[in-house]
């Protein structure tokens, strides 16, 4: 286990180091797919320069990172590449405990013929390695790391949140969730799965009539809100002004920068009449948060899968997505390798995602450099890419529900008259 | 989502899929049908009823009438003779004389000197270390701020060619100077060493340096260049004018520029051609169809080569619509004199002068079977789509094979054991090895020329080309020996996974290529798709190996050389064809180094490795 992991680590460090030194690094750090106005390294450098001059980094409209990040880089700017690498590697090796427990829980509850649906301990043994490999060797992560996008830091914070939640530490979980929320607002939706998982771990049923449930919920919320307040106030004291609130959160929520990216916002809001803008901003932003409610109700027994769904939804629908965000939820895919047999469109979806990834730079070239195509071409690919992602996520969702059904009902379903039955998802 | 989760529709999709699969499995016929349909569609594009008539889309150029009054054709020819005499005296470009003449005409004149070391000697043009000077004069617009400009350029070629072009350029400059309606600056550029000079001037103008050229910065500058026309003229009178559109990497100017040229040729009664072919009116006869098919195929071949076919080709990269106009003097009776050609240019420049924004209304993706007919992207892409469908169908077929040993029932449950994943190494190794071969093919020829020249009795150029061919051939022997050493015996699953990867890779690769340069993508698809679709380890080895080699990218270039000569009506013998093939390879490498043409790296780094993967499958043990 340790040897292959080291190998993967060495390999990924080598790839990144080579790319950092090559002429490609500059090219990559300019790509709109890899960096967004929120996390571009160029903007961080600009913010740092302003800070050194004693000017608020948020004056002007260039810098949109949070104060803590800029102070972090203030001290380690010379080692920026190393920071990015370290933040990438924190991700690996974290799912061991949880899956084993889960297996022990499940083993004797279900009918016999479902045993083939269970993961063997041997398979589970390799999952952390696979996750690490999927994240570290994913071209998306490599690109994002080489571009020195601060997205890597956000991913690291999210990973720490998941790790501490899985280990059952409520306080750490709340602190990291607060940090992630502080960084980019959207992880707020992970509050529900985090809470559900901790409740499950403490064997507290999700029941509004029970005082223990309310007690723990309030406890967790207080920890979360408290640490969020502490972090925000810390930022205020570091900077001495509230400038960063409109400049970071206002920027994320009201989407003033319509630079093309792989998300859905830019084209739509570039085309829209100004007086509809506010309404549709609300619609688009509520869209990101809205899925929390139905998903939490449906998946309240399976908070880890809920975390995966939420992260995927955030990275699809957030206002400035980059490939680094996609890499985060893609790293989870090996965890659900047991769902593979229930996936229905995986071939189609992977072809679509592959083709779109290749077409992004091509259509960008045709639009911006050759001048022979236009923004519609690029947006068409963006749409297709997002449809592919949505299909992927909903396919996994369906597969998960279906596996649960088979676990309780047996693998081979019969109708009352003995003929073979098929499942219908309505 | 309804489409994919509703069981009834799902069943319909599955049924359709099984139907398609059965067709693949049982008949193995639909690939052939798809392939033939693709080729037939493509050849049908040259048939006149299937094409569209060209029309002027740009309003600023359509309705505004201009009057052409250029009077001094004879004087321009006299200037040309004077220029020729000075050129002979100096033994190159008569910079001082040009500066003096242009200044006398009241232009702002500047010079730019440049130097460029070629990576290896260019034998067809006999140059290795290039030094030269560009001279350009700017006519300032009297009626508007200096924010936009047009370029008229003529090359100063060695020997006796193109003197008339420079003469006419100077004549036009003098005439334009006395007119008052210019709203854009007009730059008159006389450049030395054809494309290298243009490249240096453009890089100097736009403050870029992408090809490692040495040049002095430009002292004078006009606004952003909206359009450029390049003139090549070798005789005092011409029988026809030929329009050249194909630029670097297969880029084409906006179709309105071709329409503009055609409109003025009609107006002034000048014979005009494209690809050197006159238009015929008898489209319903076999000869008529063959003629337009030839014209279109010539355009496709020229576009696929990715080279700039005239000086305009380099302007296109800077988002400047440009075309070259070439005078042709053949044995026809009907001649056009320099005054008419001057009027043609006057008219075109005046219409371009009227533009309010860059040409953007008309098509950028088109093929022209004749100067009045065009095929737009929506019509020619299906031909390519039909070819790539074969790849996708094959991939789907393999995917189903990999997933289910038993036939698919309703989704999911019927599937037997989960597919045992073949070792990652058995797929990754061939991929990495063939790409490394590609990298070697890309870098070694130029790097190792000195060593090759030392050890073999060949010139540098031959050394580069022969090294490239040697690496290409060596690549065939390499990969199929390696995966066995690393991962032991390859399994039946192994080659299927590799083929799936290779098919998807090829489909994406060809798709991207066809978007940037349709012709290149289509030509590659025509030869690569059959090889990719049919190859398995179970076909007769020797025969398929020969077929695979015949369908490889290198041989595709060879066929293209012969076809091109055939279409130009200068057929060559095998030996001559082979020599041409060698020079095409060296030109391709030079084009990449000098102007940044992408065909050579594309073939070496991506297409060839992809083909090697299929080669690898053939020899899978």
UniProtKB/TrEMBL annotation, chain A:
GO terms for cellular component: GPI-anchor transamidase complex. Keywords: Endoplasmic reticulum, GPI-anchor biosynthesis, Membrane, Signal, Transmembrane, Transmembrane helix. Its main location: endoplasmic reticulum. The chain crosses the membrane at residues 127-147, 159-179, 185-204, 213-242, 248-269, 276-293, 305-333, 345-370, 376-398. Residues 1-25 form the signal peptide. Pfam families: PIG-U (PF06728). It is a multi-pass membrane protein. It is found in: Endoplasmic reticulum membrane. Pathway: Glycolipid biosynthesis; glycosylphosphatidylinositol-anchor biosynthesis. InterPro entries: PIG-U. GO terms for biological process: attachment of GPI anchor to protein; GPI anchor biosynthetic process. It comes from the Eukaryota. PANTHER family: GPI TRANSAMIDASE COMPONENT PIG-U, PHOSPHATIDYLINOSITOL GLYCAN ANCHOR BIOSYNTHESIS CLASS U PROTEIN. Belongs to the PIGU family. This is Phosphatidylinositol glycan anchor biosynthesis, class U.
TrEMBL record, chain B:
It comes from the Eukaryota. GO terms for biological process: attachment of GPI anchor to protein; GPI anchor biosynthetic process. Pfam families: Gaa1. The chain crosses the membrane at residues 20-47, 377-402, 502-535, 542-564, 570-590, 597-618. The keyword Isomerase does not apply. The keyword Disulfide bond applies. It is a multi-pass membrane protein. One of its GO terms (cellular component) is GPI-anchor transamidase complex. Its main location: endoplasmic reticulum. Pathway: Glycolipid biosynthesis; glycosylphosphatidylinositol-anchor biosynthesis. It is found in: Endoplasmic reticulum membrane. Keywords: Disulfide bond, Endoplasmic reticulum, Glycoprotein, GPI-anchor biosynthesis, Membrane, Transmembrane, Transmembrane helix. Heteropentamer. Part of the GPI-anchor transamidase complex, consisting of PIGK, PIGT, PIGS, PIGU and GAA1. Interacts with PIGK. Component of the glycosylphosphatidylinositol-anchor (GPI-anchor) transamidase (GPI-T) complex that catalyzes the formation of the linkage between a proprotein and a GPI-anchor and participates in GPI anchored protein biosynthesis. Binds GPI-anchor. This is GPI-anchor transamidase component GPAA1. It comes from Electrophorus electricus. The gene is GPAA1.
């Amino acid at each position: 286990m340790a040897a292959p992991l080291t190998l993967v680590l060495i390999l990924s460090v080598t790839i990144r180091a080579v790319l950092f030194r090559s002429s490609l690094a500059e090219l990559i750090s300019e790509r709109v797919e890899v960096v967004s106005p929120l996390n571009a390294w160029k903007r961080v450098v600009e913010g740092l320069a302003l800070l050194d001059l004693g000017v608020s980094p948020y004056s002007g409209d260039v810098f949109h990172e949070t104060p803590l990040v800029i102070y972090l880089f203030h001290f380690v700017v010379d080692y920026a590449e190393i920071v990015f690498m370290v933040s990438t590697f924190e991700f690996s090796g974290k799912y061991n405990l949880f899956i084993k427990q889960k297996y022990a829980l499940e083993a004797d509850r279900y009918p016999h013929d479902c045993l083939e649906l269970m993961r063997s301990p041997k398979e589970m043994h390799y999952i952390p390695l696979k996750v690490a490999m999927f994240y570290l060797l994913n071209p998306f992560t490599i690109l994002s790391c080489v571009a020195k996008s601060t997205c890597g830091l956000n991913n690291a914070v999210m990973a720490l949140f998941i790790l501490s939640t899985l280990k059952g530490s409520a306080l750490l979980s709340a602190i990291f969730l607060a940090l992630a929320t502080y960084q980019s607002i959207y992880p707020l939706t992970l509050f529900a799965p985090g809470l559900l998982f901790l409740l499950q771990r403490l064997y507290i049923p999700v029941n509004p009539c029970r005082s223990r449930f309310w007690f723990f919920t309030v406890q967790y919320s207080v920890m979360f809100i408290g640490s969020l307040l502490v972090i925000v106030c810390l930022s205020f004291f570091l900077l001495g002004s509230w400038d960063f609130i409109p400049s970071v959160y206002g920027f994320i929520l009201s989407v003033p920068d319509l630079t093309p990216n792989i998300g859905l916002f830019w084209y739509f809001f570039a085309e829209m009449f100004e007086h509809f803008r506010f309404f549709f901003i609300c619609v688009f932003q509520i869209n990101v948060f809205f899925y929390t409610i139905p998903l939490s109700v449906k998946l309240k027994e399976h908070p880890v899968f809920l975390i995966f769904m939420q992260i995927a939804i955030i990275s699809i629908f957030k206002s400035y997505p980059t490939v680094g965000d996609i890499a985060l939820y893609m790293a989870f895919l090996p965890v659900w390798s047991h769902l593979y047999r229930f996936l229905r469109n995986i071939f189609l979806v992977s072809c679509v995602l592959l083709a779109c990834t290749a077409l992004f730079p091509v259509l960008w070239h045709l639009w911006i450099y050759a001048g022979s195509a236009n923004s519609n071409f690029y947006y068409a690919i963006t749409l297709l890419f997002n449809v592919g992602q949505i299909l992927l996520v909903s396919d996994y969702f369906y597969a998960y529900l279906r596996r649960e059904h088979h676990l309780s009902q047996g693998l081979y379903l019969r109708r009352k008259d003995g003929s073979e039955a098929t499942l219908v998802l309505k | 989502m309804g489409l994919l989760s509703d069981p009834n529709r799902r069943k319909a999709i599955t049924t359709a899929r099984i139907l398609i699969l059965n067709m693949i499995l049982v008949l193995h016929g639909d690939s052939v049908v798809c392939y033939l349909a693709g080729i037939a569609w493509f050849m049908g594009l040259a048939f006149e009823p299937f094409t569209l008539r060209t029309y002027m889309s740009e309003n600023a150029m359509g309705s505004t009438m201009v009057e052409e009054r250029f009077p001094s054709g004879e004087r321009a020819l006299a200037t040309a003779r004077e220029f020729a005499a000075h050129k002979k005296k100096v033994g190159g470009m008569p910079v001082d004389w040009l500066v003096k003449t242009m200044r006398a005409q009241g232009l702002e004149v500047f010079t730019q000197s440049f130097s460029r070391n070629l990576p290896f000697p260019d034998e067809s043009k006999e140059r290795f270390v290039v030094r030269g000077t560009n001279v350009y004069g700017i006519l300032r617009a009297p009626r508007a701020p200096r924010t936009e400009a047009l370029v008229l350029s003529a090359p100063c070629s060695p020997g006796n060619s193109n003197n008339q072009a420079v003469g006419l350029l100077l004549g036009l400059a003098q005439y334009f100077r006395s007119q008052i309606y210019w709203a854009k600056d007009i730059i008159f550029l006389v450049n030395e060493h054809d494309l290298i000079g243009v490249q240096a001037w453009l890089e100097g103008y736009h403050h870029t340096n992408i090809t490692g050229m040495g040049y002095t910065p430009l002292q004078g500058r006009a606004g952003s260049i909206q359009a450029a026309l390049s003139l090549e003229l070798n005789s005092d009178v011409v029988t026809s004018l030929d329009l050249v559109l194909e630029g670097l990497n297969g880029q084409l100017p906006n179709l309105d520029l071709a329409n503009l040229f055609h409109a003025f040729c009609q107006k002034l009664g000048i014979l005009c051609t494209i690809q050197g072919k006159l238009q015929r009116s008898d489209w319903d006869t076999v000869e008529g169809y063959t003629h337009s098919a030839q014209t279109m195929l010539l355009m496709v071949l020229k576009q696929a080569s990715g080279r700039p076919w005239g000086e305009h080709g380099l302007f296109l990269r800077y988002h400047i619509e440009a075309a070259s106009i070439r005078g042709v003097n053949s044995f026809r009776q009907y001649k056009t004199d320099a005054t008419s050609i001057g009027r043609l240019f006057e008219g075109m420049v005046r219409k371009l002068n009227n533009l309010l924004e860059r040409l953007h209304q008309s098509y950028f993706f088109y093929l022209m079977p004749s100067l009045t007919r065009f095929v737009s992207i929506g019509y020619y892409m299906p031909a390519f789509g039909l070819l790539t469908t074969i790849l996708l169908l094959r991939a789907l077929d393999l995917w189903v094979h990999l997933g289910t040993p038993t036939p698919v029932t309703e989704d999911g449950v019927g599937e037997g054991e989960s597919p045992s994943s073949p070792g990652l190494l058995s797929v990754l190794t061939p991929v990495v090895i063939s790409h490394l071969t590609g990298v070697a093919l890309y870098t070694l020829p130029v790097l190792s020329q000195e060593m090759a020249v030392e050890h073999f009795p060949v010139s540098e150029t031959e050394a580069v080309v022969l090294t490239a061919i040697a690496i290409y051939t060596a690549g065939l022997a390499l990969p199929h020996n390696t995966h066995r050493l690393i991962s032991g015996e390859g399994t039946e699953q192994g080659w299927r996974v590799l083929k799936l990867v290779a098919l998807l890779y090829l489909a994406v690769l060809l798709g991207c290529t066809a978007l940037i340069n349709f012709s290149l993508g289509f030509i590659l698809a025509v030869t690569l798709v059959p090889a990719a679709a049919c190859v398995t380890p179970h076909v007769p080895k020797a025969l398929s190996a020969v077929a695979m080699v015949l369908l490889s990218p290198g041989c595709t270039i060879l066929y293209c050389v012969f076809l091109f000569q055939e279409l130009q009506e200068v057929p060559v013998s095998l030996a001559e064809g082979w020599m041409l093939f060698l020079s095409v390879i060296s030109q391709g490498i030079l084009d990449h180094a000098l102007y940044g043409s992408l065909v050579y790296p594309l073939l070496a780094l991506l297409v060839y490795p992809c083909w090697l993967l299929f080669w690898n499958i053939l020899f899978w043990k």
